[in-house]
User: Fold these one by one.
Assistant:
Number 1:
Amino acid sequence: MAKTIQWFPGHMTRAMRDMEEKRTLCDGVICVLDARAPAATFNQNLQKIFGGKPILYLLNKADLADGGAEEFRKLIADKGKHCLLCNAADAASGRALTRELAKMTEEKRARAQDKGFSRTFRFMVAGIPNTGKSTVVNLLGGRHRAKTGDKAGVTRDVRWLKCGAFDLLDTPGTMPPAFSSQLLARHLAYIGSINDDILDKEDIALELLGELAEMYPGYLSERYGISDFSDKTAMYEAVCRRRGLVLKGGEYDYERGANALLDDFRKGRIGRVCLERAADYADLSF
């Protein structure tokens, strides 16, 4: 049985309070989701902080996702919300994002011009840890304005940054105080949104293999030579064999095997995936 996952470090409480205080200074919000796990990276608690501000949902890391991400984009757009697929390492995504933000502020800009002045519009950039918020800030700024990393919790403070035509409020990743779904919590663990140090990575690796066996068995066959998907432990050992992680005496190095599997998954070496199906989450209040 999978172990319960829970993670809400103290700095997140302070960050959410700071975000709420600065909300009135913002014209809108860029809510960054991970295109591989849009439902898991949707933090309902942030909606309260955003208030009634216009929201652009950005399905980031779309280069690592398959067509399931586009289904989520359609779901969110059908709810009347702004939504884009994005690869924050790609300049074309930056241009599309700039156009969408300009569209969101079009009426305010026209009113300002009617009154004879121009102004810079401000957006809060928010979301779950490790969805690429700071990379999005750098995409809009055209250079490395925000600190980035592949570990959850790189950004710890709320701060304003001048990025091209906009001022962006770069914020730390924030989790809900408790996970309503352990399935979605595991998805966050797979993509690196939860600090690996608090996880049983071998348990997480087994759960990931089970989900991939159901959704993407062909990927497991191609990457690790797996043909029997009925036993998670056997699949785990196949990963170790394929990666050469076998100790003296024929014992498997399960710890390194877990690290190798998660690293392969997070970097897209296994294949493009979307762990969730939009139809299953149609009732989410984006």
Note: The chain is about 40% helix and 10% strand.
Number 2:
Amino acid sequence: MSFLLFQTSLALYLLATAAYLVFFFSEKAQIRKNARLLFVLAFALHSVTIIVRYFEAGHTPITTRHETISFFAWSLGCGYLSFCWRYEVKNLGAFVSLLVLTLMTMAAFASREIVSLSPLLQSGWLPAHASLSILAYGFFALAGIGGLMYLLQERTIKRKRFGLFYSRLPSLETLDKLNHHCLSVGFPLLTLGMITGSLWAKQALGSYWHWDPKETWTLITWLLYAGLIHQRFTVGWRGRQAAWLSIAALVVALFTYWGVSVFFAGYHGNFS
């Protein structure tokens, strides 16, 4: 059942992405309305897919590569819709839906086999730790997309070439609000993810911290975002500086999320 639901949500994301891209060039309000409706429907069905997968697997479906990539795509969609609920963001959907579609396609090519949990993962801390951490990365990915759009828009304005991108990208002020929103939500989520992970490690392995490669890189990621939060809310970093650092921090976060399990051995390899 979850397979059929996943394929249907993937198809809806594809249609939403196509509609958003058509709107990007045509700027017809009805197309944008349809694109957003398709994205909301895809996200809702994706949510149902995760719930059904939970009952099929008998545990929270965020342990295999297929499940974690799918949940990452869901987290990005969640961040996007949470921001759109409060602000009007011109053409952000075209960028977000394209990335969500890419992630869903990657998940589609990964093995969908339901794998029994190892003794280490058979813990009530699993859904709290893993879901909070991946949800945080979803918000950070949205901040990175906003940072890229900010730099594109700023470059257009500085060069005074008011062409395609200038008229279609959100204002610099709106993109800066997006960065603020994503950091304000993503950083506490990552912090809670680290805390629940430490409590889990204490319960399962006897101590709160083991300098596992994943733990170390998560700490590096946390410190990087903590620095960005400090510079933004204390020193007053805005705009271009925040955009560049959001992109750089996202690269580190994605390496922590995917790269560490590929290049380093550790007990967190169970999540890949």
Note: The two ends are 23 Å apart (CA to CA).
Number 3:
Amino acid sequence: MKIQVYKRARVLEAIRDGQCVLRCHIALGFGADDGPKQREGDGRTPEGRYFICTKNAGSRFFRALGVSYPNAQDARAACERGEIDAHTCRDIERADREGRRPDWNTPLGGLIMLHGEHPEGCEGDWTAGCVALQNGDMARLFAMCALGDSVEIHP
């Protein structure tokens, strides 16, 4: 399974065997139009190549698929900006290389999810950086996805 997120269009597509098996409208982080996620609290949705690193059938937001943000590229860029140290960068790079969930407690932030609706209902881009789907679409995506599936987030 390959998940494609198109931030500008606010669309998610799930591709299996070259066929689009799900296409749906999404909401993003409240700062999504300001570029890719760079740090905790910026409200931006990441951009780049990631993978599904967790699955949570009991999420506060219906169901959730964890995205492997930050990846090695995010970590190297942050290290160059002086926002994380070399040790943290190496740990994130190792997790990315080994297909594991990265540390979500760094200045880069984490806990980026593909998840369902807010339990109280929200309009527009309301997440802290996640990708939100309607619950029906999330149920379908959750059932189709496995750990390690590809997630590509485009501007």
Note: The longest strand covers residues 48-59.
Number 4:
Amino acid sequence: MATQKTALILGAGIMGLCTAWALARAGWRVRVIEQAPIPNPRGASVDQHRLIRHAYGAQAGYMRMVVPAYAAWEMIWAAIGARHYVETGVLALANHQGGWLAESHVALRADGHACADLSPDQITTRFPMLSDTGIAAAFTLQRGGVLLAERIVAGLAAHLARLGVVFEAAEVAAAQPARKTLRLVSGAERSADLLVLAAGPWGPRLLGTGLTGRVVPSRQILVRLEAPPAFRAAWEAAPMLLDLAEDGGFYAVPPVAGTALKIGDHRFSRQGDARADPRAAMPSEIEEILALARPRLINAEAYRVLGAKACYYDVEDREEFILEAAAPGCFVMSGFSGHGFKFAPLLGLALAAAAEDNTLARALPGWAAGRDAPAPGLLAALESAP
């Protein structure tokens, strides 16, 4: 009888867990090392919400990956026995012509996605909690919604434990890709036939020159709000809001499935230390986010701040995902820049397929970066996933 292949995964965020799921269902014996209890409250994946939508500016490669990403999420829902997703649709606004919104409009229409243009007066009629001041362009998309991130991470981890995936709580001192080995702070080592490094904003420290200069941690502030009574029903029925300004703008996630209304910054701070910095947001950081949103909110002073926190992204300059072999038998997953969560099951399936096919492994980086169409072999592997 053939010996069962072993996989060692660093990181139990959404990338590590989805890769563990894909490898386990492909017959690998999997161990996941995580430095904190799962869901790790300091992890980049652990928050109430993450968004999935087709609008992607000029990055048509990622726009086209959203369709198979939805299919991969359906596989996750079937596996864990719960559907942690709420369809909301998308409302995109901009205070200027051109840029991301216009590029999205062109790409969506070219790919057959129906987006409906809105005039400022149509916006205030349909969404009475929003001001039309300064809107230069707007559209809606029916498809798009909220992934309930923390529930997904917890549910997937529990499912993997039932499958026999081993979770080890340990802090890693260094990764050694050529040896497919992790050296723990305790001095012990863990090795396997396959090593996957999915350490989020901790990755550059552990991999050194492999990611230094390519990926940086980025402290991002999220603010949870309670809308005034007159607008609560409108927000509960609202689409996700992408409010774009020439200097960045903000996004808003409606209060779905018992979660809070949340706003955040489109911009990346590109600073901070994910290991040491507190996750509590400072008053000045909260005020900066509120200042972005106030011009768009009717009766903005009546919104109550319920809480705020910082999370950390691992940001690649061009917002291109890094999914590549660091050495034979070792893959790096990094640079997800706040938009990777929606693709995690798809990327996990792709890595599991590439782990046993060198041709697919060579095609993986360009596809994951959104630049290349999937190689025929990769597409076939994803479509035939058991």
Note: The chain has eleven helices and 20 strands.
